[in-house]
Amino acid sequence: MIPVLFVVTILVFSIIRFIPGEPARLILGEKATPEAIAALTEKLGLTEPLISQYFLFLRQIFTLDFGNSFTYQMPVAKLLASRFPVTLALTLMSTALSLLISLPLGYFAGVHKDKLGDQAVRTASLVAISMPSFWVGLLLMIVFALKLRWFPAGGWADTLGGQFRCLILPAITQSLMTTALLLRNTRNCVVDITRMDYVDFARSKGIPDSEVRTRHVMRNAMVSTVTLLSMRMAATLGGSVIIETVFSIPGMGKLASDAIFGRDYAVVQFVVLMFAVLVLVINLITDILYSFLDPRVSL
Predict the structure, then answer these.
(1) Which residues pair with 68 in a beta bridge?
(2) Rounded-to-integer distance, Cα 179 and Cα 247, Å
(3) Which domains does the chain have, with CATH numbers?
């Protein structure tokens, strides 16, 4: 994880500076005087050589002093602390929704291979994979927020219950692709595993079908499902930029989008870096889960 994080710091630092335009001019506006632009450029540290700017960036990471946001006029650390729980709640809610739908339906389709239920589940998952998330989000917003008025069309609430209602439509939108992929993967794994000799042997010993389903079929099917889930959670974090922008949710994705257009270097750098850390942590947890799901894998 450490070498990967080091490479990520180089990429984040470099790419944001290759974006065309002067950050100081974008922050101050087109009517800013050359003197004001020069003063802000120096205050941002952009007059220093790139190598000096990079080492300053590394020092901020190690000291957890992320500097101040010129767009929001507040410390970046405080800004990230206020936005991170929103994105985390959205990601966890989307993941939980995906698992609750995909695992039962995937097992059902795998057990009833090539029957009407299997055909219906596979068709529905293919339709879900084919639809882009931003279009699904707008469609859900029109139907359930504007027409039926069951949920808020966007924004954020002050109460916990209101925040939960604000996350329902974004979570459904974000979980659609993950649900479809997990469902198809679980279905295919169940079809393959139920043909294995050890499953027939377990049933021949008189083990209850529920125990065979949980200990022998689903546990082995979860090995590849956990791998796919970790990849989809990483994609979900990146996709939060689109989902949070569509639904105007004040999370890290919306923060990253606003900071990129505003050339707020400090915010963009540390938001992307935090996304990278979260992806690495997800992969680490996935590796640990392997040891519980597959006895052949040890820590």
Answers:
(1) 75
(2) 20
(3) 2-65 (no CATH), 82-293 (1.10.3720.10)
